[in-house]
Amino acid sequence: MVDILHRIGVKDSSPDKVYDALTTLDGLSGWWASDTKGSVEVGGVIEFRFEPGGFDMQVVELKPAERVLWQVVDGPAEWIGTTVNWEIKQEGEYTIVLFSHVGWKEPVEFMHHCSTKWAVFLMSLKSLLESGTGNPEPRDVKISNWH
Question: Which of 12, 45, 58, 137 is the most core-located residue (most Cβ within 10 A)?
């Protein structure tokens, strides 16, 4: 199996603020998908809708200001059964986010696309937390015909 891994630092934020952006519908729609709904509690399912489709993530684990873990329960076949993990920690003036999307069966071309798009959306998360304005879909950077 192969994984997507990224790391960002959010300046002058806090683990609590990052956690809120990952665990509230307002936070999630502010940086990832404008069309976000569902239940953000453990066991709940969050529905993220994009122009070309969407993803449903079941919330598996929540550790305030430390960790968020989702499992993909609906979406593209390559995503189903994979997990999305967010580790949050403070390092000086930066809140560090260690992101992983794990469990891909093979590094298909779609995985390359998704890795780049995760990076785009992580920069949107950083922007939301540092400036108050993110770039969620549909305002995100489009990188190909897959969006």
Answer: 137
